[in-house]
Specification:
The protein is built from twelve helices and eight strands. Helix 3 (about 85-100) packs parallel to helix 4 (about 115-130). The protein has one domain (about 10-230): TIM Barrel. The longest helix has 18 residues, at about 230-250. The protein has helices at about 25-40, 60-70, 85-100, 115-130, 140-145, 150-155, 175-185, 195-200, 215-230, 230-250, 255-270, 285-300; strands at about 10, 45, 75-80, 105, 135-140, 165-170, 190, 205-210. An eight-stranded parallel beta sheet has the order 1-8-7-6-5-4-3-2. The chain is an alpha/beta fold.
């Protein structure tokens, strides 16, 4: 029987870390990994949207994961997102991730071309076969991938015993309930949208993977623990604070990840660099948003 306890908790999506020249910074990766371990997170989701995966090379993604694992292996759960927009590169990353000892690999469906379900299933199963001793997580994010996980596709994928569950970033909370019911015992469903964490957990999500978790992990860990303890009223207070923080950060002209990396730099002196083009870096006009968002995070954290 699969050990699903390792997936039950708050798992921040790991941010890409760059040096002053825009290259992946091994030192930055290691420092951010240790910082999040110290914050008490359950695990890390490496190489996904927050890791700017579609703008990185295979070598970039290998270097990032290698340095995460150098710090985190055996301490927290590591899920490596390995999808590229072709099977060969995805398979290469899957095999590499397994060689490093990750707990699971994950994948979005192929983007741009709208493939039939049998082609998506083959893509996922080919990736999974390249890491035959590692759990596989389906990543459902239809608003970005352009393809939604249907019940028929999920049922086809559940024939693969390595499929451990779904990271669900679709907005309808009932998707979590449906996927959870279909997956059955021994599999997990993660809540994806940070703004609905309390709702996702209440309807049955086992854990949560989120793109804004790393900028304020204490808040999300508190929500998770309060929901599990049955204190929904207090959890809702923190969720409202979190949502307002997210809305504030999204007011910047610069990309959201650039905003969050800057806040981490100011709060903890951890420099993760900017974001990779064509993602848009911060502008001078974003200073007011950054200052206000940081104040909101610190005020919300002080209430815990």
């Amino acid at each position: 029987m699969r050990n699903i306890e390792k997936y039950q908790g708050v798992i921040p999506a790991f941010y890409a870390c760059y040096d002053k020249d825009g290259n992946v910074s091994p030192e930055g990766v290691r420092a951010l990994t240790q910082h999040l371990i110290d914050k008490g997170v359950k695990g890390l989701y490496v190489g996904g949207s927050s890791g700017e995966c579609i703008y990185q090379t295979v070598a970039d993604r290998k270097l990032t994961l290698e340095n995460v694992m150098a710090v985190a292996k055996g301490k927290i759960t590591i899920i490596a997102h390995v999808a590229c927009n072709n099977t060969a590169d995805s398979v290469e990353l899957a095999a590499h991730a397994e060689s490093l000892g990750v707990d699971a690999i994950a994948s979005i469906p192929p983007i741009y071309f709208h493939l039939p379900e049998y082609a998506i299933a083959k893509y996922w199963n080919d990736i999974s076969a390249a890491a035959p001793n590692t759990d596989f997580i389906i990543y459902n994010i239809p608003q970005l991938a352009g393809t939604a996980l249907t019940m028929s596709l999920l049922k086809e994928m559940l024939k693969n015993p390595r499929v451990a569950g779904v990271k669900n970033s679709s907005m309808p909370i009932q998707d979590i309930q449906m996927f959870k019911a279909a997956a059955g015992e021994g599999r997990v469903v993660f809540n994806g949208p940070d703004e609905q964490l309390i709702g996702g957990l209440a309807i049955g999500a086992d854990g949560a993977i989120g793109g804004t978790f790393a900028v304020a992990p204490e808040l999300y860990i508190a929500i998770f623990n309060l929901v599990k303890a049955g204190n929904l009223a207090k959890a809702l207070e923190i969720q409202i604070d979190v949502d307002n923080i997210i809305y504030k950060m999204c007011e910047a002209k610069g990309n959201l990840y650039a905003v969050m990396k800057e806040i981490i730099k100011r709060r903890y002196n951890l420099d993760c660099g900017g974001v990779r083009a064509p993602l848009f870096n911060l502008t001078d006009a974003d200073e007011a948003v950054i200052v206000e968002a940081q104040k909101m995070i610190e005020a919300a954290t002080a209430k815990l």
